[in-house]
Specification:
Elements: H1 14-26, E1 46-48, H2 53-64, E2 75-79, E3 84-85, E4 91-92, E5 94-97, E6 102-106, H3 113-125, H4 132-138, H5 147-153, E7 164-166, E8 172-177, E9 181-183, E10 190-198, E11 205-207, E12 219-227, E13 233-239, E14 247-248, E15 253-261, E16 269-276, E17 279-280, E18 285-290
Parallel strand pairs: 2-6, 7-11, 9-18
Antiparallel strand pairs: 1-2, 3-4, 5-6, 8-10, 10-15, 11-14, 12-13, 12-16, 16-17, 16-18
Bound molecules: zinc ion (ZN).
Length: about 290
Protein backbone atom coordinates (compact mmCIF):
# COMPACT_ATOMS: atom_id res chain seq x y z
CA UNK A 1 0.00 0.00 0.00
CA UNK A 2 2.72 2.46 0.98
CA UNK A 3 5.94 2.25 -0.97
CA UNK A 4 7.85 4.05 1.73
CA UNK A 5 6.12 3.07 4.92
CA UNK A 6 9.43 3.57 6.66
CA UNK A 7 10.65 7.11 6.20
CA UNK A 8 14.26 7.93 6.84
CA UNK A 9 13.19 9.11 10.28
CA UNK A 10 12.21 5.53 11.08
CA UNK A 11 15.58 4.08 10.16
CA UNK A 12 17.48 3.69 13.42
CA UNK A 13 20.54 5.75 14.15
CA UNK A 14 23.52 4.02 15.74
CA UNK A 15 22.21 5.02 19.15
CA UNK A 16 18.85 3.52 18.36
CA UNK A 17 20.48 0.38 17.03
CA UNK A 18 22.33 0.04 20.32
CA UNK A 19 19.09 0.62 22.19
CA UNK A 20 17.46 -2.01 20.02
CA UNK A 21 20.35 -4.34 20.79
CA UNK A 22 19.60 -3.92 24.48
CA UNK A 23 15.91 -4.38 23.89
CA UNK A 24 16.68 -7.54 21.98
CA UNK A 25 18.40 -9.02 25.00
CA UNK A 26 15.04 -8.85 26.74
CA UNK A 27 12.98 -9.69 23.72
CA UNK A 28 11.42 -13.05 23.17
CA UNK A 29 11.23 -13.36 19.44
CA UNK A 30 8.75 -15.86 18.24
CA UNK A 31 5.56 -15.90 16.40
CA UNK A 32 2.79 -18.26 16.02
CA UNK A 33 -0.83 -18.46 15.29
CA UNK A 34 -1.07 -22.18 15.86
CA UNK A 35 -4.55 -22.58 14.49
CA UNK A 36 -3.91 -20.52 11.41
CA UNK A 37 -7.24 -18.80 12.07
CA UNK A 38 -7.47 -15.20 10.95
CA UNK A 39 -7.35 -12.87 13.88
CA UNK A 40 -7.75 -9.15 14.27
CA UNK A 41 -4.62 -7.17 13.59
CA UNK A 42 -3.04 -5.39 16.55
CA UNK A 43 -4.06 -1.78 17.10
CA UNK A 44 -2.16 0.54 14.83
CA UNK A 45 -0.90 -2.19 12.48
CA UNK A 46 -0.16 -0.73 9.06
CA UNK A 47 0.31 -2.51 5.77
CA UNK A 48 3.59 -1.83 3.95
CA UNK A 49 5.29 -2.98 0.78
CA UNK A 50 8.27 -5.25 1.25
CA UNK A 51 11.42 -3.08 1.00
CA UNK A 52 13.97 -4.02 -1.67
CA UNK A 53 16.26 -5.72 0.85
CA UNK A 54 13.52 -8.26 1.57
CA UNK A 55 14.19 -9.80 -1.84
CA UNK A 56 17.73 -10.73 -0.80
CA UNK A 57 16.71 -11.83 2.67
CA UNK A 58 13.95 -13.95 1.15
CA UNK A 59 16.41 -15.58 -1.29
CA UNK A 60 18.82 -16.37 1.56
CA UNK A 61 16.03 -17.91 3.60
CA UNK A 62 14.49 -19.84 0.71
CA UNK A 63 17.93 -21.25 -0.04
CA UNK A 64 18.44 -22.70 3.43
CA UNK A 65 14.87 -24.03 3.36
CA UNK A 66 15.45 -25.49 -0.12
CA UNK A 67 12.28 -23.79 -1.35
CA UNK A 68 11.23 -21.86 -4.45
CA UNK A 69 8.34 -20.10 -2.71
CA UNK A 70 7.59 -16.54 -3.79
CA UNK A 71 7.80 -13.43 -1.64
CA UNK A 72 5.16 -11.55 -3.58
CA UNK A 73 2.08 -13.06 -1.94
CA UNK A 74 3.14 -12.26 1.63
CA UNK A 75 1.43 -9.27 3.23
CA UNK A 76 3.54 -7.26 5.64
CA UNK A 77 2.32 -5.17 8.56
CA UNK A 78 4.19 -3.23 11.18
CA UNK A 79 3.33 -1.67 14.51
CA UNK A 80 5.22 0.93 16.51
CA UNK A 81 7.71 -0.18 19.15
CA UNK A 82 9.91 -3.14 20.08
CA UNK A 83 7.24 -5.79 20.62
CA UNK A 84 3.81 -6.68 19.33
CA UNK A 85 1.21 -8.99 20.91
CA UNK A 86 0.75 -12.18 18.92
CA UNK A 87 -2.61 -13.99 18.76
CA UNK A 88 -1.66 -15.91 21.91
CA UNK A 89 -1.09 -12.63 23.75
CA UNK A 90 2.69 -13.05 23.97
CA UNK A 91 4.81 -9.96 23.43
CA UNK A 92 7.03 -10.83 20.48
CA UNK A 93 9.05 -9.10 17.79
CA UNK A 94 6.79 -10.48 15.08
CA UNK A 95 4.48 -13.29 14.08
CA UNK A 96 3.12 -15.06 11.03
CA UNK A 97 -0.42 -16.16 10.29
CA UNK A 98 -0.58 -19.01 7.77
CA UNK A 99 -4.31 -18.53 7.15
CA UNK A 100 -3.87 -15.00 5.85
CA UNK A 101 -0.22 -15.46 4.79
CA UNK A 102 0.60 -12.25 6.58
CA UNK A 103 3.45 -11.15 8.83
CA UNK A 104 3.09 -8.59 11.60
CA UNK A 105 6.36 -7.09 12.82
CA UNK A 106 7.11 -4.73 15.66
CA UNK A 107 8.40 -1.79 13.63
CA UNK A 108 11.83 -1.74 15.24
CA UNK A 109 12.41 -5.25 13.89
CA UNK A 110 11.33 -4.50 10.32
CA UNK A 111 14.94 -3.94 9.26
CA UNK A 112 16.55 -6.53 11.55
CA UNK A 113 17.57 -9.32 9.20
CA UNK A 114 17.36 -12.20 11.68
CA UNK A 115 13.86 -11.16 12.77
CA UNK A 116 12.54 -10.64 9.24
CA UNK A 117 14.09 -13.88 7.96
CA UNK A 118 12.52 -15.76 10.88
CA UNK A 119 9.09 -14.64 9.68
CA UNK A 120 10.07 -15.33 6.08
CA UNK A 121 10.93 -18.90 7.04
CA UNK A 122 7.41 -19.29 8.43
CA UNK A 123 5.95 -17.80 5.26
CA UNK A 124 8.15 -19.97 3.02
CA UNK A 125 7.07 -23.12 4.85
CA UNK A 126 3.50 -21.82 5.38
CA UNK A 127 3.81 -23.02 8.95
CA UNK A 128 3.60 -21.02 12.17
CA UNK A 129 5.41 -23.71 14.17
CA UNK A 130 9.17 -23.88 14.75
CA UNK A 131 10.53 -27.10 13.35
CA UNK A 132 13.90 -27.81 14.98
CA UNK A 133 15.48 -29.18 11.82
CA UNK A 134 14.59 -25.99 9.96
CA UNK A 135 14.93 -23.17 12.50
CA UNK A 136 17.78 -24.58 14.58
CA UNK A 137 19.73 -26.62 12.04
CA UNK A 138 19.43 -25.84 8.33
CA UNK A 139 18.71 -22.12 8.81
CA UNK A 140 20.52 -21.65 12.13
CA UNK A 141 22.48 -18.42 12.18
CA UNK A 142 20.37 -16.95 9.41
CA UNK A 143 17.10 -16.67 11.37
CA UNK A 144 16.67 -15.69 15.00
CA UNK A 145 15.29 -18.45 17.22
CA UNK A 146 14.89 -17.27 20.79
CA UNK A 147 12.87 -18.29 23.82
CA UNK A 148 9.45 -19.15 22.36
CA UNK A 149 10.98 -20.52 19.18
CA UNK A 150 13.27 -22.91 21.08
CA UNK A 151 10.45 -23.92 23.40
CA UNK A 152 8.21 -24.72 20.44
CA UNK A 153 11.01 -26.64 18.70
CA UNK A 154 11.20 -29.03 21.63
CA UNK A 155 14.24 -30.52 23.36
CA UNK A 156 17.52 -30.89 21.50
CA UNK A 157 18.73 -34.44 20.85
CA UNK A 158 20.95 -35.89 23.56
CA UNK A 159 24.57 -34.77 23.43
CA UNK A 160 27.11 -37.06 21.78
CA UNK A 161 28.58 -39.13 24.61
CA UNK A 162 32.03 -38.90 23.03
CA UNK A 163 31.99 -35.07 23.00
CA UNK A 164 34.82 -33.37 24.85
CA UNK A 165 34.23 -30.15 26.79
CA UNK A 166 36.41 -27.29 25.55
CA UNK A 167 36.79 -23.55 26.00
CA UNK A 168 35.79 -21.24 23.11
CA UNK A 169 39.50 -20.69 22.46
CA UNK A 170 39.62 -24.23 21.03
CA UNK A 171 37.59 -23.07 18.01
CA UNK A 172 38.78 -21.37 14.83
CA UNK A 173 36.84 -18.10 14.71
CA UNK A 174 36.61 -15.92 11.61
CA UNK A 175 34.68 -12.90 10.36
CA UNK A 176 33.79 -11.87 6.81
CA UNK A 177 31.94 -8.90 5.35
CA UNK A 178 29.77 -9.05 2.26
CA UNK A 179 31.05 -5.68 1.00
CA UNK A 180 34.35 -3.98 1.75
CA UNK A 181 33.02 -0.60 0.63
CA UNK A 182 29.45 0.67 0.69
CA UNK A 183 27.94 4.04 -0.05
CA UNK A 184 25.17 5.62 1.97
CA UNK A 185 23.73 6.70 -1.37
CA UNK A 186 23.38 3.14 -2.68
CA UNK A 187 19.76 2.17 -3.21
CA UNK A 188 20.72 -1.01 -1.35
CA UNK A 189 23.16 -0.03 1.36
CA UNK A 190 22.74 -3.11 3.56
CA UNK A 191 25.64 -5.45 4.11
CA UNK A 192 26.31 -8.57 6.13
CA UNK A 193 28.89 -9.36 8.76
CA UNK A 194 29.24 -13.14 8.91
CA UNK A 195 30.93 -14.71 11.92
CA UNK A 196 31.97 -18.36 11.83
CA UNK A 197 33.24 -20.78 14.45
CA UNK A 198 34.77 -24.09 13.41
CA UNK A 199 35.67 -27.11 15.47
CA UNK A 200 39.15 -28.03 14.18
CA UNK A 201 39.24 -31.20 16.24
CA UNK A 202 38.60 -34.73 14.88
CA UNK A 203 35.94 -35.39 17.51
CA UNK A 204 32.72 -33.72 18.72
CA UNK A 205 32.92 -30.99 21.33
CA UNK A 206 30.70 -29.10 23.74
CA UNK A 207 31.88 -25.53 24.23
CA UNK A 208 31.79 -24.06 27.73
CA UNK A 209 30.45 -20.60 26.95
CA UNK A 210 31.13 -17.99 29.62
CA UNK A 211 28.14 -16.96 31.75
CA UNK A 212 26.40 -13.83 30.53
CA UNK A 213 26.34 -12.10 33.92
CA UNK A 214 22.56 -11.71 33.78
CA UNK A 215 19.59 -14.07 33.84
CA UNK A 216 19.86 -14.80 30.13
CA UNK A 217 21.78 -17.48 28.26
CA UNK A 218 25.49 -16.98 27.54
CA UNK A 219 26.71 -15.06 24.53
CA UNK A 220 27.30 -17.15 21.43
CA UNK A 221 28.10 -15.14 18.29
CA UNK A 222 28.79 -11.40 18.45
CA UNK A 223 30.04 -8.66 16.21
CA UNK A 224 31.68 -5.30 16.74
CA UNK A 225 31.83 -2.68 14.01
CA UNK A 226 34.06 0.13 15.24
CA UNK A 227 35.21 3.21 13.39
CA UNK A 228 38.98 3.39 13.05
CA UNK A 229 38.92 6.87 14.60
CA UNK A 230 37.26 5.45 17.71
CA UNK A 231 34.24 7.75 17.49
CA UNK A 232 31.51 5.13 17.08
CA UNK A 233 30.78 1.47 17.51
CA UNK A 234 27.86 -0.73 16.57
CA UNK A 235 27.57 -4.16 18.12
CA UNK A 236 25.33 -7.06 18.96
CA UNK A 237 25.70 -10.15 21.15
CA UNK A 238 23.56 -13.11 20.14
CA UNK A 239 22.69 -15.57 22.92
CA UNK A 240 22.95 -19.36 23.01
CA UNK A 241 19.18 -19.82 23.35
CA UNK A 242 19.45 -23.50 22.41
CA UNK A 243 21.95 -26.12 23.56
CA UNK A 244 22.77 -26.87 19.93
CA UNK A 245 24.58 -23.50 19.78
CA UNK A 246 27.48 -24.89 21.82
CA UNK A 247 27.65 -28.42 20.36
CA UNK A 248 29.89 -29.06 17.37
CA UNK A 249 30.49 -32.26 15.42
CA UNK A 250 34.05 -33.04 14.34
CA UNK A 251 35.10 -30.36 11.85
CA UNK A 252 31.70 -28.61 11.98
CA UNK A 253 31.41 -24.91 11.19
CA UNK A 254 28.56 -22.79 12.53
CA UNK A 255 27.88 -19.30 11.20
CA UNK A 256 25.85 -16.28 12.26
CA UNK A 257 24.76 -13.54 9.87
CA UNK A 258 24.47 -10.00 11.24
CA UNK A 259 23.04 -7.27 9.05
CA UNK A 260 23.66 -3.57 9.05
CA UNK A 261 23.24 -0.63 6.75
CA UNK A 262 25.58 2.14 5.65
CA UNK A 263 23.05 4.82 6.49
CA UNK A 264 23.03 3.53 10.09
CA UNK A 265 26.72 4.46 10.17
CA UNK A 266 28.96 7.48 9.80
CA UNK A 267 30.85 7.90 6.54
CA UNK A 268 34.30 6.75 7.65
CA UNK A 269 36.52 3.65 7.89
CA UNK A 270 35.48 0.77 10.11
CA UNK A 271 36.87 -2.53 11.31
CA UNK A 272 34.52 -5.49 11.73
CA UNK A 273 35.30 -8.02 14.41
CA UNK A 274 33.46 -11.28 15.06
CA UNK A 275 33.41 -13.25 18.27
CA UNK A 276 32.19 -16.58 19.56
CA UNK A 277 31.95 -17.05 23.31
CA UNK A 278 33.59 -13.62 23.63
CA UNK A 279 36.72 -14.86 21.80
CA UNK A 280 37.56 -12.62 18.83
CA UNK A 281 38.31 -13.73 15.29
CA UNK A 282 41.90 -14.18 14.27
CA UNK A 283 41.66 -11.25 11.86
CA UNK A 284 39.37 -8.21 11.59
CA UNK A 285 37.90 -7.00 8.29
CA UNK A 286 37.92 -3.46 6.94
CA UNK A 287 34.71 -1.77 5.78
CA UNK A 288 34.65 1.72 4.29
CA UNK A 289 31.42 3.70 4.38
CA UNK A 290 31.29 6.55 1.88
CA UNK A 291 28.71 9.35 1.67
ZN1 LIG B 1 8.29 -17.82 14.78
Amino acid sequence: MQQNAFSLARIPTITEVQRCALAFLLRVAACESPTGVLVTLPNGARLYDAPAIYQRWWAMTASCANSSASLKDVRWYFTEGDVVPNPAGERVSGYYEPGSHRVVLAGNGAYVGGVVRHEMLHAITRNARHDRATFLARCAGLVDCDFYCVRDAGPAPAADMTAVRVAPTALAIAVAVSRASVSQRDSDDFFEIVVSATNPLPHPIVVDLPASGDDGPPDSFSYRLASVDGSSIQWYDERAWDTSASRFAAGEMKRWVFDTKASFLRATSYEADGLYGNVPAAQRRAVTVTP
